[in-house]
Amino acid sequence: MGSTSDKISGKANELAGKAKQAVGDATDNHSLEAKGAAQEAKGHGQQAKGEAKEAVKNVVDKA
Q: Is the pLDDT of residue 25 over 80?
């Protein structure tokens, strides 16, 4: 998986997680809120992974 696809997947998970948290909050569903927070955190991790891959690629390309 490339850096761009990691960042796209990460953003999608982040947004879906935020949506789940909002629905969970609105319906007082703490389980859904927790799942949303976990999915959002996963998205942050995926985006960081994509950014790290991109940084490594940029260093390698300059060498």
A: yes
d(CA 52, CA 48): 6
Percent of the chain with pLDDT strictly greater than 90? 84
pTM summary value: 0.85
In the numeric block, the tokens 């909050």 are attached to 25
Sequence letter at residue 17: G
* Residues sharing a CB contact under 8 Å with residue 47, sequence separation 6 or more, in sequence order: 6, 7, 10, 11, 14
Computed on alpha carbons and rounded to an integer, the radius of gyration of the chain in Å comes to 15
Closest CA to 46 of 16, 9, 20, 1: 9
Both structure tokens of 8: 């796209």
Report the alpha-carbon distance of residue 26 to residue 35 in Å, rounded: 14
